[in-house]
Specification:
- This protein is an alpha/beta fold.
- The protein is about 35% helix and about 20% strand.
- It has nine helices and twelve strands.
- Helix 3 crosses helix 9, helix 5 packs across helix 7 and helix 7 crosses helix 8.
- It starts with 10 loop residues before the first strand and ends with a helix.
- Bound molecules: zinc ion.
- The site of zinc ion (ZN) has 6 residues, from loops.
- Its EC number is 2.7.1.59.
- It catalyses: N-acetyl-D-glucosamine + ATP = N-acetyl-D-glucosamine 6-phosphate + ADP + H(+).
Length: about 300
């Protein structure tokens, strides 16, 4: 067993996204003390490093701890922590050694965590997965991302990728009901093409002839059986991805996050779709909605940095 996670220090987290960099300061008990949001600069890597440094220095000053404050950063994409090139959609880090550039600019450690991993860790520590030994997080929003926390910790990441399950192909047993669409990753038939928010709209377009946004589709489903059938098909697809997480990673709980969790009755719909897929007597994981929502990226990164802080 690893040592118990630290809980004696305040900590700070940065959430780096395509449009904003959010800084959040937490008490030793992980209560939110203060936050500050600035736009993500569009001027390239140097401007980005400058903005990250600005947020880091604000956290250090606001905490009264200076550079002793553990701070981590969550971000989307794939980063080679060994110094290789980075890739993150909507961020000017492509091809750069981001961890090295941050170290040089900041003069201190800034542990990085994929945002889906940060989400899983945040929910495993005081969130919807609190107390479970293995917590998977599945984010269904503009894209699909997943992460795993084990014994309340983020897994060590060699390449800063999460569980990139959105780019697995959906199973043939779903038959001809689904359109085979090109994915942003360069292949076709990925879960993400139909399961994300834009994916659900595409599925509606395929079945109804018109692209309906998810929230309108849910409203329409209450009186239109064809719209309801689209949501049922989407839930069958989501259940296949939940089954994949279950069989491959063995989580006790799968916490759901992202914009599509606002679909009414989502948990019941997904549980009903998952139940028939159960493999023999294997108990299925519990499904739960995220507690921390949009705060998870910064909160998970802060917890991760504090766990790595020297005693
Ligand atoms: Zn893909």
């Amino acid at each position: 067993m690893p040592p118990a996670p630290r809980s004696d220090l305040p900590c700070g987290g940065l959430d780096l996204g395509g449009t904003k960099i959010e800084a959040r300061l937490f008490s030793p008990g992980l209560d939110l003390l203060d936050s500050r949001r600035i736009p993500t600069p569009t001027g390239g890597l140097d401007a980005l490093l400058e903005a990250v440094a600005d947020q880091l220095h604000w956290l250090e000053a606001a905490s009264g701890q200076g550079a002793a404050l553990p701070v981590g950063m969550g971000l989307p994409g794939v980063i080679d922590t060994g110094g290789g090139p980075a890739f993150a959609a909507n961020l000017p880090v492509g091809g750069h050694d981001l961890p090295g550039a941050l170290r040089q600019r900041l003069g201190r450690a800034l542990p990085l965590l994929n945002d889906a991993q940060a989400f899983a860790l945040s929910e495993a520590r005081g969130g919807a997965g609190d107390g479970a030994e293995r917590v998977a997080g599945l984010i269904m929003g503009t894209g699909i991302g997943a992460g795993l926390a084990v014994l309340g910790r983020a897994l060590p990441q060699i390449q800063l990728a999460a569980l990139e399950v959105g780019h697995l192909g959906w199973p043939a047993r779903l038959g001809d009901a689904l359109p085979l669409l090109a994915c942003g990753c360069g292949r076709s038939g990925c879960f993400e093409t139909l399961l994300s928010g834009p994916g659900l709209s595409r599925l509606a377009e395929h079945r109804l002839g018109v692209a309906v946004p998810p929230e309108d589709l849910a409203q329409r489903a209450s009186h239109d059986p064809a719209a309801e059938a689209v949501l049922t098909l989407w839930a069958d697809l989501a259940a296949e991805l939940l089954l994949t997480l279950h069989l491959a990673q063995d989580p006790q709980v799968i916490v759901l996050g992202g914009g599509l969790t606002r679909l009414p009755g989502l948990l019941d719909r997904l549980a009903a779709a998952l139940a028939p897929l159960r493999l023999g007597p294997l108990p299925l994981p519990r499904l739960a909605l995220a507690v921390f929502g949009d705060a998870s990226g910064a909160r998970g990164a802060a917890i991760h940095a504090r766990d790595l802080a020297p005693c």
